């Protein structure tokens, strides 16, 4: 399955790598220069960094680190696992991470959003011919990224990390204990990048704190040919109290089947009920299909209380970089991995110097927060306003019918940049938003009142 | 039979009525109104499918065979294979019924049927839509491409909404504001001797006026005070979660 040829990709670091590889390894003389800053203790052996977790975050970090000339070790416990995941990535990720198009299973060009009262809106009328949402298989993508990191010079270690010993002093290394091929081994490194996902062991070892998680539950259903044709380029999103009290349910097409799933934060014990509800809502379209797999996974809702401690930095799901409202995490994982790797390369000047916590905070955390906090905050507001009640959801679907909203949404999603809008249209959109919200919430209130009335009548 | 249906969901109710009344059938009718209709459907479903195991991929009756693994939470385990003993038949909740109403035509309300005195009776349209959405909420229907719903609340003109919902509330609030205003003006006048016109020139009085108006607008029910406090907390909660990692920067010495 992984027999795709690795096309030589023009990577920004390629030139750097070539020049570094030709350098000979420096002798083991330790020079202590009385420095102005405490972090300029120059040791001649290169900085050793371990990236724990070989998903998009870990592989991107490892790739950048290795290209920067740092001794990188990438730990992955299960390289062949198919992760339960939507598998959708935005257009900008294809460019920024040079992902070849043969990895893409499907190009989704149309999306339907269905409200609780079955108002259906076609989302995607404004997409240009070259714009689409790529659906990939996670195992294919992860494998590609890992191999690329290996090509740049990272050492792939297939192992399960069991324990991480924190250093006793400022200059002593971290000890990573792991099991590989049924043998216990350990490795000493100077810096650790924790990219091991929602149940991160690295986070536990540095006592980074807990975060609330949503649970995403999905069933992969193989459909008969004619039903599959409908989902060729189409993904669907269902909102409603019946399918999820605080999130949405989806039908995403995969390589040769569809994934039907839902998620929730506050009501995890009822997830099976929600799954039944979504299956019911999609009934005519999945009639005759067979379930080939059932999977579930936690999705972090917000960043951990601590993302950097000592010389350990968390990236991706381990740090909690998943947007609300859409639950998108792959792009942000890869981007944060890359940013963290670049931060380490910069702060250590290509592995020549040791780095401290302040370096990680300044170069990685600050930059990340400055660049992406607004996006995350905006999506949090959207989720709070529109996913809270059926009235809000109806308003959301009504708004999505407007072309301007569609265009702005897709541009922001596909390119991860605040889309440039027409101020007049923005005002119109704001007024439409307020109008829809008011109307749908009024209807919602009337529904509650009529329910109370019928209840009192019965009694 | 009714006991079997309701036993999974209402265990606490089953023993007491049977003991006290000895007529479980009758006593359940009393408890009907207390449960929203939605829960009843799930009870029926759970009981009706008990024990009817199904083989894999039976074509027409139970089209989707589910082989659910027990541990469907937590970290991703190795690929879930079909080793679970209980193969549950797929339950499609809800009946085949769709929303039936003579005025609901082609996925939208036929406005001609709402005509009253030659004009559309928008209040009736709103009522009909409320009923439909309530019905949909209780009986979630699968969306169908053949009969798409195209009704949008924006079809109902803005003045219909205003006339029915905004104006009564506005009247109420204005009434409250007027009463408060009159008594506050009298009270301040009696205390300080400053007349109404002179009060409006004073900064403190203008502030009081602003507070009174804001109070009338924001606090309409007793619960609103709590709601406002929670709202304030909620808006800043997400920010706090992001800032949390910066909080322990100062107490810790750099370079741990």
Outline the fold blueprint.
The complex is a heterodimer of chains A (459) and B (256).
Chain A: H1 14-21, E1 48-52, H2 56-67, E2 71-76, E3 88-89, H3 91-96, E4 106-108, E5 110-114, E6 120-123, E7 133-135, H4 138-152, E8 155-158, E9 160-165, E10 174-180, E11 183-189, E12 191-194, H5 201-205, E13 213-222, H6 225-230, E14 234-238, E15 249-253, E16 258-264, H7 271-281, H8 283-286, E17 290-300, E18 308-309, E19 312-314, H9 330-347, H10 357-386, H11 390-400, H12 403-415, H13 423-458
Parallel strand pairs in A: 1-2, 1-12, 2-8, 5-14, 12-19
Antiparallel strand pairs in A: 3-7, 4-7, 5-6, 9-10, 10-11, 13-16, 13-17, 14-15, 15-16, 18-19
Helix pairs in contact in A: 2-4, 2-9, 9-10, 11-13
Chain B: H1 2-6, H2 15-20, H3 24-31, H4 37-48, E1 104-105, E2 108-109, E3 115-116, E4 119-120, H5 122-138, H6 158-192, H7 196-201, H8 203-218, H9 224-247
Antiparallel strand pairs in B: 1-2, 3-4
Question: What's the shape of chain A?
Answer: globular
* Share in helix of chain A: 25-40%
What profile does the largest beta sheet of chain B have?
Answer: 2 strands, antiparallel
- Secondary structure class of chain A reads alpha/beta
Please give the share of residues in helix of chain B. 40-55%
List low-pLDDT spans of chain A.
1-10, 12-38
State the low-pLDDT regions of chain B, or none: 1-91, 251-256
Assembly state of the chains shown:
heterodimer
Description:
The complex is a heterodimer of chains A (459) and B (256). Chain A contains 13 helices and 19 strands. Chain A has 459 residues and is an alpha/beta fold. In chain A, helix 2 runs parallel beside helix 4 (138-152), helix 2 runs parallel beside helix 9 (330-347) and helix 9 (330-347) packs antiparallel against helix 10. Chain B is mostly helical and 256 residues long. In chain B, the strands form two sheets. A two-stranded antiparallel sheet of chain B has the order 1-2. In chain B, strands 3-4 form a two-stranded antiparallel ribbon. In chain B, helix 6 (158-192) packs antiparallel against helix 8. Chain B is flat, with a radius of gyration of 30 Å. At the A-B interface, strand 13, helix 7, helix 8, strand 17 and strand 18 of A face helix 5, helix 6 and helix 9 of B.
